[in-house]
């Protein structure tokens, strides 16, 4: 028998409209992995009697199990108010919102038919990708500040910019879904509670409350960043500086009068949340220790158990969710600040998209800033972390050019700094690599080709996309040394560093991968400095950089002839495929057994249990296939790509004549590209869709030794089932993965006319 859930109405302090809170009998609770997810939705009324009627209708649905099936929605629509039907059936049928399609419907990207090239910018955080975009747009870094830049991670949402020749300025923005935002808020509240349990300061807890650990959801941009007084904290600015910054903020966004929100009230709410959490944590800790009957000798073990169960148990408290609801309410209020443009919402009232069209460049950039800025004086008024995609189009012209080339610039999240070799790039980035016409690798000349950009180069090579590569090395003006007096000396110094990377890539990916990247580097490489300022100001360095930018822009927009594959077609030994798949699976398992702490792997050190748990939750919930740098689906795809790419370089023979080196490279890239497109579906199915329940089982492990239990479940029930190492003995369970890969190669062979002998 399913538990009987009851809905009740609720109203946030300072809010007129009523909401309803209930446990959903079908949707899974992320804390337990079982039905009973807590849901809070607005009822769309401030009238008590009307709210009571709506809540009773929802309770009738909760009492009638035959209405819980998604197919019963039409029947329910004939019996109950449409608002209640929307509340109950929202997200009942698992479907991932296609935000790119929403932006396409609102503001379509021009393509080859219109003479446009789509350019993907890839680079390490801080390398200067967004600064390059700013130069290609010609926006002023002081007065326009678009796109926003900083020394840390800036781009957290896909930014797509169309350089048009004329016409109005247009924008289309899409926002993260309500449940995703609530889930991250709940993680923040849990992280703040854990900090208090561990004896951290209230200031540290407050920081964790407003900024998510992976820096994607920095809610301090939306809610503000309150400061707790500290005796040793000196204020570097006087009151005049504060007034000047506040005036600048109002000038940027036009926020002289804030009638909708009270920033001081929000700050007070955030500060007061910390002692509320401390009270919850202290009460829970006392009860947990009493339940475990802990003695002084057991203190260390008990603390570890309580720490691991704290998140799950706090999420069962209504007071915990009240904190999350309060934060979400403050976030929703910020959307009321939007004056210009059109805001579209879901049927439940959550913001879905925003559009704007205007001839006024100043108004356009000032308004769009709210969705992209990281300007500290504006904290508490921005919507930046809630945006998952922003698309703009307009007649932007670089200061160093008479006109813009026909480009669509796609700036995505920076690759991040990794001390160890990065195994793979995210699934979303890999798909972008396949889709675009050109790939611009932006790297810092002072420290070129670290682990993350090298991982991106490998992803480009093994997916057959090397022919799209272009290189831009930034910060050339910072290369000051006695042994590098001339521009040519600095250029050779950078290329020498890249040479070491290419040699290592040749050993890992074979000669075809290395030569393809090397050829592009020799023909499509540029060096720039002083990109943070206008290049039209003159000076030798500025003129040289402007020249390189003009050549780069023309290069990116130029049509390149497709490489000729020639008449020859390779023949491969069919038995080479099982060896390739076995090696890929073994490498994948070795890496992840290290990450899970089941084996020692110096190249993949054990991850903290909180990160593994967060990963299990995202895959168990089905709303992501990665968490921060943990990317199992992408890792498996990469291992398969590498091994198949190596196999393709070792044909038994060639039919139709001996190909030239360029023809051989073109054939291998053609096959690799076709294989890659199918590997996305296979790896997502094997490690995400087919094993979703196992991920949930791993997530809900708790108590003593839960870290080890979670790791064993992921290793055996997820990876062991989804990507088993093929065996010599016939076994459908072990060799189904091999068969799926073999089927892909057979399909591609029919399309590209290579032979499996």
UniProtKB/TrEMBL annotation:
GO molecular-function terms, A-Z: ATP binding
Presence of the UniProt keyword Cytoplasm in the record: no
SUPFAM superfamilies given in the database record: P-loop containing nucleoside triphosphate hydrolases
Organism per entry: Streptomyces avidinii
InterPro entries: P-loop_NTPase
Region called Disordered, residue ranges: 228-247
Bias (Acidic residues): 229-245
Keywords from the UniProt entry: ATP-binding, Nucleotide-binding
Protein name (record): Energy-coupling factor transporter ATP-binding protein EcfA2
Domain of life: Bacteria
Phylogenetic placement of the source organism: Bacteria, Bacillati, Actinomycetota, Actinomycetes, Kitasatosporales
